[in-house]
Amino acid sequence: MFLPKFNPIRSFSPILRAKTLLRYQNRMYLSTEIRRAIEDAIESAPVVLFMKGTPEFPKCGFSRATIGLLGNQGVDPAKFAAYNVLEDPELREGIKEFSEWPTIPQLYVNKEFIGGCDVITSMARSGELADLLEEAQALVPEEEEETKDR
Amino acid sequence: MFKRAMSTDGPVARTILKRLECGFPDYKNFAFGLYNDSHKHKGHAGVQGNASAETHFRIEMVSKKFEGLKLPQRHRMVYSLLQDEMAQANGIHALQLSLKTPQEYESKAK
Which of A7, A118, A125, A126 best probes binding to B when mutated, by most B CB atoms within 10 angstroms? Predict the structure, then answer.
């Protein structure tokens, strides 16, 4: 649509063509096994973050910022799962292809891809993120201890 | 010695501008910024062994092409324009994007 289907520069450069081919192979590389493992990870909690490092020790500023935003929103730790892509090269490459998104972190809410750090930052600012997490019932419940009337 | 500001006229930056011009011919009509933030991330885990001074970029762009599209869709448009540069081992490591429609930009500016 916005990208010309045929880029003449590309077809004249054998190096670029090889690279395109390589990328194509990368694309085939996502085996059913890895695909299933990623799906399992995405289903493992209402809020799932693929990140670099761990929530306690993020290894990248964008992962750290995203963890911070989710924490500020009050995401319930019981409803949250994080996966460190640095621990697993198959996940690191696989998730990019699976989500069709070239960067980490990546957020999923109720199995739906939401976006990376910029998208989440902007959604946090506009209030969309709070709505989304509330709708997903992923937030720490408000203090209910004093109203035990049920 | 004066510290040199990170340039946005390196080969990667020039490619970015070229690709954006192909994909979003109207971007020059609006506010635009391309920033090279590579110095902020020099030598961190993800770019070790990558001597390139063009690894981290930030783009602020306005285009009518974003109208009616959600943020992830807008990001994907830019990502797919730059997919070769992002796939390379020595290519773009991180890309921060702020992508607005002209209306969104206007309402923010007021």
Answer: A118
Q: Which residues on chain A place their C-beta less than 8 Å from a C-beta of chain B?
A: 2-4, 16, 19-20, 23, 26, 52, 59-62, 86, 100-103, 113-119, 122-123
CATH number at residue B62: 3.30.300.90
> Ramachandran region of residue B108, left (φ > 0), alpha (ψ -120 to 50) or beta?
alpha
In a domain, B58, yes or no: yes
Q: What digits encode the pLDDT tens for the residues B71-92?
A: 999 999 999 999 999 988 888 9
Q: Where do the DSSP E strands lie in B1-110? A: 32-36, 56-62, 94-100
What is the band of B6 on the pLDDT scale with cuts at 50, 70, 90?
A: low
At the topology level of CATH, where does A9-139 sit? Answer: Glutaredoxin (3.40.30)
In a domain, B2, yes or no: no
Domain ranges of chain A: 9-139
Examine the predicted complex and report whether its ipTM is higher than 0.90: no
**Which one-letter DSSP state was computed for residue A75?**
B
B87: chain A residues, CB-CB within 8 Å = 19, 23, 26, 102
Does residue A28 have a pLDDT over 50?
yes
